[in-house]
Design a protein that fits this description.
- This protein is α/β, with parallel strands linked by helices and 277 residues long.
- It contains 9 helices and 9 strands.
- A 7-stranded parallel sheet has the order 3-2-1-4-6-7-9, sandwiched between helices.
- The radius of gyration is 20 Å and the shape is globular.
- InterPro entries: NAD(P)-bd_dom_sf, Sc_DH/Rdtase_CS, SDR_fam, SDR_oxidoreductase.
- This is NAD(P)-binding protein.
- It comes from Suillus subaureus.
- Keywords: NADP, Oxidoreductase.
Length: 277
């Protein structure tokens, strides 16, 4: 398996699980020293660590080339690298908003492009599994997370469309992972919460409550248990297109489905006279 964002959170936990189970891993990350302990414990025949910034297409392509050289093929790609800069829309600078998209969408897209090529053109027999790490905020947006949620919604729409584009003969399967709150880097110090605009400072507004939650709540999701579930997906003959992973993600999915159904039922008649014939 090739794991992006392997320095912490889901990426680190997945890398450790796979190595413990005897699997071969290509671990990509921006700082190789973050996995120095694993490099000392596992041989290069099992663990390949590649310094990679997913927003740089040349580095992503080089990482896949090194994986091919070392192991011959990659059967699963865990497309996990991401970042979180949170705040209400008017609180976010253009630079921060664009950086969120550069990593969470364009970085993931860069990895996806190389993964599909590897699965189709390098792997013999042909095929592979692509696990796209989204978020419960990719299911339903929340106040004070507008650009982060937008980047994850973009990844989900991209992945849904891609899944339909692929020729079934290529034997490539895609699953979107939608985690709720887990003790990853997002909750462990790698999240940036930008200063709040005074217009949104009312503590009763949803954005203020979300800020309070993000800064004071210890996430109850265990990444080590979660990656065991995620890894199981790679063994399914017919994996789901998406899987909400946490009670909060499950609830978000159900609430959105219920709301969308109610809106469609209420306004379906409005579409009756909008056609040429």
């Amino acid at each position: 398996m090739q794991v992006t964002g392997s320095s912490s959170g889901f990426g680190r936990s997945m890398t450790e699980l796979l190595l413990k189970n005897g699997n071969r891993v290509v671990a990509t990350l921006r700082r190789k020293e973050a996995l120095s302990d694993l490099a000392e414990r596992y041989p290069s025949s099992q663990l390949l660590i590649v310094q990679t910034d997913v927003v740089k297409t040349s580095e992503v392509a080089a990482a896949f080339a090194k994986a091919k050289e070392a192991f011959g093929r990659i059967d699963v790609v865990f497309n996990n690298a991401g970042m979180a800069i949170l705040g209400e829309m008017e609180c976010m600078s253009d630079q921060d908003a664009r950086q969120v998209f550069e990593v969470n969408f364009w970085g993931a897209s860069n990895v996806t492009r190389e993964a599909i090529r590897m699965f189709r053109e390098v792997n013999k027999p042909i095929g592979g599994r692509l696990l796209q790490v989204s978020s419960s905020l990719g299911l339903r947006g929340r106040a004070a997370a507008s650009y982060y949620a937008a980047s994850k919604h973009a990844l989900e729409g991209f992945s849904e469309s891609l899944a339909e584009e692929l020729d079934p003969a290529w034997n490539i399967q895609i699953t979107i992972i939608e985690p709720g709150p887990f003790r990853t880097g997002m909750f462990g110090g790698n999240m940036e919460l930008v200063p709040q605009h005074s217009a949104y400072a009312d503590p009763e507004l949803p954005g203020s409550k979300f800020r309070q939650y993000m800064t004071s709540t210890l996430a109850d999701g265990d990444t080590e248990k979660a990656v065991v579930v995620i890894e199981k997906l790679t063994h399914l003959d017919d994996p789901p297109l998406r899987i909400p992973l946490h009670r909060i993600a499950v609830r978000a999915g159900r609430e959105k489905a219920k709301s969308l159904t109610e809106i469609i039922d209420r306004y379906e008649s409005w579409t009756e006279n909008v056609y040429f014939t």
